[in-house]
C-alpha cells in the first residue's frame, strides 16, 4: 500500500472552481482499480489550503492514476488556480496493516 | 466529520520505540466511539517522519480522544522521542460526503 498526501494552495478567486474540479476527480478516482481512498479535505484554518489523501494498493496503481483521463483533465483545469506549486508526499503504511481495513 | 493530520519528527534512536507505542495507540483509538480512521504512516523519503491520519465523526469525538487513557499514555511515552514539536492540522471533509463511506 502507498499513501500520497497532496497539499494544494489555491488563489481565493478560484476556490469554488477548484472544489468543483476536485470533486469530479475524486468521484472518478475512487472507481479506479487499486484505489483504496481518495479523501478531499479543506484546512480548517485556511480555506484556500486543500489536501488530497490518496491511498492505493501498490506503487503501480498510484502511478496508473496519473495516466487516467480524469487526472489529466484535473491537472490541466486546476493548474492556474494554484497560488504555488502543489506538494505530494508519499508514505508507507504502518497501520492498519490489513488491506481489507482500507476498503 | 473532522480529520486531523498529525506530523511527527522522531529522533533516529527512538524510531522503533515510537513505532511500537504508536501501533498500540492506533489499536486502541480505532475502538473509540466516533473514530472513523486512525492511519499510521511513515514518510517514504524520511524514515524519521511519521503521519497520523485521524478521522472522527465530530469535533466532540476528536476532543474526547485526548481524554482517553491510551492517548495520555502515548503522549507521555513519545514526548522524549520527538526531534521537534509535533504538528496537528485540522481539516473539514469535502469528499466523500457520505459518512458511511468512512466506516
What report would you give on this structure?
The structure is a homodimer of 103-residue chains. Helix content of chain A is 31%, strand content 39%. Chain A is of the alpha+beta class and 103 residues long. The first copy, chain A, has a single domain (2-94), classed as Alpha-Beta Plaits, CATH 3.30.70.100. Chain A has a four-stranded antiparallel β-sheet with strand order 2-3-1-4. In chain A, a hairpin with a 5-residue loop joins strand 2 (35-43) and strand 3 (49-56). The longest helix of chain A is centred in the N-terminal third of the chain and has 15 residues, at 15-29. The mean pLDDT of chain A is 97. At the A-B interface, strand 1, helix 1, strand 2, strand 3 and strand 4 of A face strand 1, helix 1, strand 2, strand 3 and strand 4 of B.
Which labels suit this protein?
homodimer; 103 residues; alpha+beta; Alpha-Beta Plaits; 3 helices; globular
3D shape of chain A? globular
Mind summarizing the main beta sheet of chain A?
4 strands, antiparallel
Q: Kindly provide the name of the CATH class of chain A.
A: Alpha Beta
The helix content of chain A, as a percent range, equals 25-40%
Oligomer: homodimer
Characterize this entry briefly.
Chain A is α+β, with helices and mostly antiparallel strands and 103 residues long.
Topology summary:
2 copies of one chain form a homodimer.
Chain A: E1 2-10, H1 15-29, E2 35-43, E3 49-56, H2 59-65, H3 69-78, E4 82-95
Antiparallel strand pairs in A: 1-3, 1-4, 2-3
Helix pairs in contact in A: 1-3
Amino acid at each position: 500500500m502507498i499513501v500520497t498526501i497532496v497539499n494544494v494552495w489555491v488563489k481565493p478567486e478560484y476556490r469554488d472552481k477548484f472544489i468543483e474540479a476536485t470533486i469530479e476527480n475524486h468521484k472518478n478516482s475512487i472507481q479506479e482499480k487499486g484505489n483504496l481512498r481518495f479523501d478531499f479535505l479543506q484546512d480548517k484554518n485556511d480555506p484556500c489550503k486543500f489536501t488530497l489523501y490518496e491511498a492505493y494498493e501498490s506503487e503501480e496503481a498510484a502511478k496508473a492514476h496519473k495516466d487516467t483521463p480524469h487526472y489529466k483533465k484535473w491537472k490541466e483545469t486546476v493548474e492556474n488556480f494554484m497560488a504555488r506549486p502543489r506538494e505530494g508526499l508519499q508514505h508507507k503504511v504502518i497501520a492498519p496493516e490489513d488491506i481489507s481495513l482500507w476498503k
